Design the sequence.
């Protein structure tokens, strides 16, 4: 089923503003919510936050008062949409439970995007990031389990929890996060939507951890958030560098609105909660008008018709949250020990001896990384780590229970410095 | 042969030629800079060579990553051509006293040639993905040429 937002009619802007009661929406019920409804809510919050922050950046680079008025009006509505999306999350859901939802988004959204990416290089970019977020899910799940809450109740039966590319090895020099940019003029439009979607999701994850990571009192939990927040910053650099850097602000604006239309339409197709489905439908109606306005503004300001770069027949299909267990296992089996050198990906043992990766690792991992300490504490307190392996053991032998990150498929141990043991002994919890 | 077929062949040849020249120019920079790091006497030259090595490894990786999205491109050169091979030989055979001067002279010439190549493709190259690569690499090449002129 295809979707062409340029052929759909939206809600006029003067009918989009809502009152406080309409915005302060009743949250979903934790005990009833489908895990993929939660991930859709989190993903849409990310897309709306990106829309708002982009619009502010654009306003700061715009001298044209008339144009500022137009983007300010749509931005106010995007702000209201963001409130509705994020206020669907109930207060009873604690920060770490919410965090597992964020990482489930990162795993299953990125996996879907990678599977539907036509460009082989960009597909590799997504698979590289996927394995890192997959590992974050495992680390946070161990924290949540120690807090007495069951991680499987958050992710359901949809997503496995087991080590990915160990976070300790994800810390790289900033120069090694720069990928090769796409060229909108020459790429499949799906690639543009894929990149915008994942970038929005990763950026909100970075922002979330940057802000809530200091809420726990437990030093290991605080450390866990800050260490993973550093990787999320790497991921934002990684994904933003695949965007076409030659696009104008107005072209970005049109693409943002198109992306929001596509995302709401996609989730409208699969949402199981009728009340939330109605929200996606309402927001889609609003976004269609924002897109129409953005296209008209581009024509008026730049004299350029967005039809030059928007797909004539729209999007072929919607993005869906669905199980990716087999795919994630396959990627893990083949790519766990990859690292990056500039824009290229390679097994860590292919780096030269004096590569900056090793110096960076030796500095940041000079003491035990919190992502390792949380697993060690779980083992000490319960006898083992927490896993949700519904499809069998981890595909990498070295990452199975009792493994030590050594062996086939994991060459990191041969080259990376080992941290000093400084495991702290405190009870987990916020 | 139709006009369109002729045009397409000449366009493919221009793209292949740019890729080959860019790849060889970059290989030369990497090899010359490694030699300079071993042999240069001047700290300024060594600092410059270290930056050339790092930046041209990056440019080479960016080009490789670009080619991953262009599966129809035929084999790309992985070795220096005669001209650049002779330039490396000249550096290898230079006396210790002459090395720094020879290296800087070659760097100025190589960067001027590279700038001509990249500017031309960025302006009118017949492949948008490679044009993005050329445009994104140009500013570094321009800075390199300014720097080599400033090294004493």
Sequence:
């Amino acid at each position: 089923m295809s979707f062409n937002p340029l052929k759909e009619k939206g809600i006029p802007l003067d009918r989009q503003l809502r009152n406080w009661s309409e915005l302060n929406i009743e949250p979903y019920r934790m005990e009833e919510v489908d895990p993929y409804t939660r991930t859709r809510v989190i993903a849409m919050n990310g897309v709306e936050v990106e829309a708002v922050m982009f619009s502010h950046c654009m306003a700061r680079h715009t001298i044209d008062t008339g144009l500022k008025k137009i983007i300010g009006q749509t931005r106010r509505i995007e702000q209201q949409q963001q409130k509705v999306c994020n206020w669907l999350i109930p207060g009873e859901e604690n920060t770490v439970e919410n965090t597992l939802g964020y990482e489930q988004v990162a795993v299953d959204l990125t996996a879907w995007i990678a599977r539907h990416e036509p460009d082989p290089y960009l597909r590799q970019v997504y698979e590289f990031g996927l394995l890192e977020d997959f590992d974050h899910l495992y680390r946070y799940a161990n924290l949540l389990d120690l807090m007495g809450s069951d991680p499987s109740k958050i992710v359901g039966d949809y997503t496995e929890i087991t080590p990915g590319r160990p976070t300790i090895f994800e810390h790289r020099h900033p120069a090694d996060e720069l990928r090769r940019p796409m060229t909108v003029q020459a790429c499949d439009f799906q690639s543009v939507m894929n990149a915008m979607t994942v970038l929005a999701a990763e950026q909100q994850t970075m922002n979330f951890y940057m802000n809530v990571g200091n809420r726990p009192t437990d030093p290991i939990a605080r450390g866990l958030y800050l260490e993973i927040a550093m990787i999320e910053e790497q991921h934002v650099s990684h994904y933003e560098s695949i965007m076409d850097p030659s696009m104008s602000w107005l072209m970005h604006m049109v693409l943002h609105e198109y992306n929001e239309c596509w995302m709401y339409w996609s989730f409208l197709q699969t949402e199981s909660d009728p009340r939330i489905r109605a929200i996606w439908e309402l927001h889609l109606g609003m976004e269609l008008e924002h897109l129409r306005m953005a296209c008209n503004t581009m024509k008026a300001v730049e004299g350029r018709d967005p039809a030059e770069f928007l797909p004539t027949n729209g999007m072929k299909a919607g993005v869906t949250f669905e199980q990716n267990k087999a795919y994630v296992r396959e990627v893990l089996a083949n790519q766990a020990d990859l690292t990056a050198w500039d824009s290229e990906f390679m097994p860590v043992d292919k780096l030269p001896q004096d590569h900056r990766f090793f110096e960076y690792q030796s500095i940041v991992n000079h003491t035990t990384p919190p992502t390792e300490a949380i697993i060690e504490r779980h083992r000490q307190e319960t006898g083992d780590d927490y896993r949700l392996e519904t499809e069998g053991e981890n595909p990498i032998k070295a990452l199975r229970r009792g493994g030590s990150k050594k062996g086939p498929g994991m060459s990191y141990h041969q080259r990376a410095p080992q941290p000093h043991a400084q495991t702290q002994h405190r009870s987990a919890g916020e | 042969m139709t006009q369109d077929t002729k045009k397409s062949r000449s366009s493919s040849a221009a793209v292949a030629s740019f890729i080959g020249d860019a790849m060889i120019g970059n290989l030369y920079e990497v090899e010359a800079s490694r030699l300079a790091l071993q042999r240069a006497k001047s700290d300024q030259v060594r600092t410059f060579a270290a930056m050339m090595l790092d930046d041209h490894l990056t440019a080479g990786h960016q080009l490789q990553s670009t080619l991953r999205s262009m599966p129809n491109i035929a084999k790309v050169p992985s070795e220096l051509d005669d001209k650049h091979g002779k330039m490396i030989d000249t550096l290898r055979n230079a006396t210790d006293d002459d090395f720094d001067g020879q290296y800087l002279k070659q760097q100025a010439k190589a960067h001027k040639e590279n700038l001509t190549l990249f500017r031309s493709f960025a302006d009118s190259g017949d492949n948008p993905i490679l044009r993005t690569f050329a445009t994104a690499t140009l500013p570094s090449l321009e800075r390199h040429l300014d720097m080599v002129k400033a090294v004493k």
Remarks:
- The CA atoms of residues 23 and 96 of chain A lie 25 Å apart.
- Confidence is low (pLDDT under 50) at residues 419-430 of chain A.
